[in-house]
Structure formats: structure tokens, C-alpha cells
Design a protein that fits this description.
The structure is a single chain. By secondary structure, this protein is an all-alpha fold. It is 66% helix and 0% strand. It has one domain. It starts with 18 loop residues before the first helix and ends with a helix. Bound molecules: zinc ion (2 copies). One zinc ion binds next to helix 2 and helix 3.
Length: 252
């Protein structure tokens, strides 16, 4: 019988190194690169206030949108057996539907390491752009990537806090002010079939994306073009779980 998503996790209960070492290196590289990018922007900020303000706005909206897009993709397509993204991205999101509180037991490395790893290529690219020699468009791009990268840390952490019962008072204040996704807001996503409120950083875009049926429309386009069925793996998984439960009750 197929394993449950929880059993398919790529993490061992007490990881010795493996992927955790990759996450630790990613966190160190992220800290160095982000400090470099922010310092460079600060030294070059004179006379570019409008560009930087525009970059912050784009990054704030972009962080929320990307959190929803990546979450939707991992929930909707593929299986935990897929190479690379299967065990590192798809399995954790599917497991999260089966055990929503598991994320609250993850430490800082497990919560944020993967997000930082994913942000590194764009940050490296931004660091390679010579700000002084290029125009305002390049500056806007580099600044947006710099602020978006900071959001990479925020996304999983904000998601974790939306499931955490005891959290710092300043986090509760930010959630109440709508500056981080709240428990009540994120609870909408945890109602089966888990196809609403995908954005997990601020949740600002969820009402708009759900109202215009952004993700269902995207799914039907992809299905029409590729023939792939959304959540096919979930359906097969639920069917097998039901069959296993029936077989178990028949033996009692
Ligand atoms: Zn989900
Ligand atoms: Zn959640």
C-alpha cells in the first residue's frame, strides 16, 4: 500500500546532517548575501527614494503572491516522489494538511532553511548587478529582489505563527493589525478541500484571488494544455486511505 504523506517525509526524527546541513549552509549564505545587498542599497540610496519606495511596495505584494503561488503549486501538482521538489517542497505541504500542528514543532532551521535556499540564486544575480553603471530599472530590480528575499524568511515563519497557540505579544499585535497572516484567516485554508486562501505571509491577496477564482482558472488552463489533473495524487491518496480503513474495520 502507498505510504501516507507523513511517512513519506524526507526528514528523520533526529536528522544528523543531510538536508539539515544544506539548510544551515543556506542560512549562513543568506545572511551574508542579504547584508551585502542591503548595505549596497543603503550606500547608494541618495536620490533614489522613490525607486526604493516602489521596490518595497512591489516586494510586499510579491511576497504574499509568491507565497500563495508556491503553496498552490505544491498542494495541486505532482507527488512527494517527484525528484528534487517532491521531498523538499511537495511532501511538507501535503503533510501539513494531515498534521497542521507539526510546523509548530519545527525549529528555526527547519522552518526557514528551505525558503532561504530557494532565494539564493536570485540574490546572487542581484549582487552581481553593477548598480552604479546601470539605470533606475536595474536599481528597482535589485531593490525588489533584496526586499523579496527578506520576505522569504517571513513566509514560513508567519505561517508557523498562524498555527502557534503561544506566540510573542508583538506577533499577536501584528496579526491583529493585518500585518501578518492571522490564525482565523489561515484557518480558511485548512478546511477541506484546502483550495482557498493560499497566501500565507500576510494573506492580503487571498480575498482578491479567491473572488476572481485565480487558482481554479489557472488549474483549468493547465489541465486543458497538459491533461494533468489537479490534486490527482490527493484523490488517489484519500481513496487508498478509505480502502485501508474499510479493510481494517472488516477484520474486526
Ligand atoms: Zn495547503
Ligand atoms: Zn497551515
Amino acid at each position: 500500500m502507498k505510504r501516507s504523506y507523513l511517512e513519506s517525509s524526507f526528514r528523520e526524527p533526529h536528522p544528523r546532517c543531510g538536508f539539515r546541513c544544506v539548510e544551515l549552509v543556506a542560512i549562513a549564505a543568506f545572511a551574508v548575501l542579504e547584508t551585502t545587498l542591503v548595505t549596497r542599497l543603503a550606500l547608494d540610496s541618495a536620490g533614489h527614494g522613490v525607486t526604493l519606495a516602489l521596490a518595497v511596495t512591489l516586494a510586499l505584494v510579491g511576497i504574499d503572491f509568491l507565497s500563495g503561488l508556491v503553496h498552490w503549486a505544491a498542494d495541486t501538482w505532482g507527488t512527494p516522489e517527484w525528484p528534487l521538489v517532491g521531498r523538499t517542497l511537495i511532501a511538507p505541504f501535503r503533510e501539513h494538511h494531515e498534521d497542521p500542528l507539526a510546523i509548530t514543532r519545527h525549529d528555526f532551521v527547519e522552518t526557514n532553511g528551505s525558503s532561504m535556499l530557494v532565494a539564493l540564486p536570485a540574490m546572487l544575480l542581484a549582487a552581481a548587478v553593477p548598480l552604479e553603471r546601470l539605470g533606475e530599472a536595474a536599481r528597482l530590480g535589485v531593490a525588489t529582489v533584496t526586499f523579496l528575499a527578506a520576505g522569504a524568511v517571513l513566509t514560513n515563519q508567519a505561517h508557523k505563527w498562524s498555527h502557534t497557540a503561544r506566540r510573542p505579544s508583538w506577533v499577536v499585535a501584528l496579526q491583529r493589525a493585518g500585518l501578518l497572516v492571522s490564525r482565523e484567516h489561515h484557518a480558511v485554508h485548512h478546511r477541506a478541500p484546502h483550495t482557498r486562501a493560499y497566501c500565507i505571509t500576510f494573506g492580503w491577496l487571498n480575498p482578491i484571488l479567491d473572488r476572481v477564482r485565480f487558482f481554479p482558472v489557472l488549474e483549468s488552463w493547465i489541465q486543458a494544455m497538459t491533461g494533468a489533473v489537479p490534486r490527482a495524487d490527493d484523490r488517489a491518496h484519500r481513496h487508498e486511505q478509505r480502502a485501508a480503513r474499510r479493510a481494517l474495520s472488516a477484520t474486526r
